[in-house]
Amino acid sequence: MTSGAQQALRRTMEIYSNTTRFALACNLSSKIIEPIQSRCAIIRFSKLTEEQVLSRIVKVVEAEKVPHVSEGLEAIVFTADGDMRQGLNNLQATFSGFGVVNQENVFKVCDQPHPLLVSSMIGHCTRSALEDAHAAMKHLFDQGYSATDIISTVFRVTKSYAMPEYLKLEFIREIGFTHVRITDGVGTFLQLCGMLAKLCKVAANAKP
After folding, report:
1. Are residues 122 and 188 both part of a single domain?
2. Domain residue limits at 151
3. Where would one find coiled-coil regions in this protein (predicted)?
C-alpha cells in the first residue's frame, strides 16, 4: 500500500471514526505512515512455532483431501517461517501446480534454496572444508538465487543444524554480520564466499 493510498485511508478513518472501526494487518509496522499508527492500538504477534504451523497444515490437507507426504508438509512449514498465511498460500500453490505436496514440488513453487543443499554446505563449514562449501555456494548462486534468499536460508538452517551450541552461536554471529552487509546493498558472491571462509575459520579454531 503506497504512502499516497495510506494518506487517503487516513482521511477516510477521520471522517468515519464515529461509526466505523478499522482493523489493519501488516508484516512491517514501519511501513505504515505515522498518522495512521497514531490512530491505532498496535498489537504485535510473535511468529507461530513450527509445531503450530504443522498442526494447522495437517488439518487443512486432511479436510481438503490433498495428496501429500510428510516431507512435503515439513517443507511447507520451513518456507512459511512462522507465517500461517504464507504456509497456506504455499500449500495451495503447490497443490494447484502439481497435484501432490512433496518436498521437491514445494521448493519448485516457493523458489527458495533447498535446505538440504544448504545443510550440506554448513556441514562442510563445520569440517573447515572450504572448497566443498564454496562449490555448494557457487551451485546455489548459479541457480539464480539472490544473496538475500541464500543468507536467509543459511541462517534458518544453521539454527536447527546439529552442532555444538558454542559453535552454532559463533556461526550465527558471522552469518548475522554478512546479512547486515547484504541488506546494506553488498549482495555479491564474494561476500557470501567470505562468510564461508569465516565460518570455516571459526570451526577450525572453535573451543568449547
Report:
1. yes
2. 115-205
3. none
Strand partners, 68: 101
Note whether residue 79 is domain-resident.
yes
- Number of folded domains in the chain? 3
| Range 4-19 average pLDDT | 92
- Write down the H helix ranges in 16-146: 34-37, 50-64, 70-80, 84-98, 103-110, 115-126, 130-142
pTM above threshold 0.85: no
List, as one string, the DSSP characters of 183-201: HTT---HHHHHHHHHHHHH
Residue 208 has what pLDDT?
56
Q: What is the DSSP-derived secondary structure letter of residue 163? A: S
The CATH code of the domain that includes 172 is: 1.20.272.10
Report how far apart, in Å, the C-alpha atoms of 111 and of each of 47, 66, 73, 175, 179 are: 22, 21, 16, 21, 20
**Residue 2, C-alpha cell as written in the block:** 503506497
Select the more confidently predicted residue: 59 or 81. 59
Please check whether residue 128 is in contact with residue 204, taking contact to mean a CB–CB distance below 8 angstroms.
yes
Q: Which amino acid is at 97?
A: G
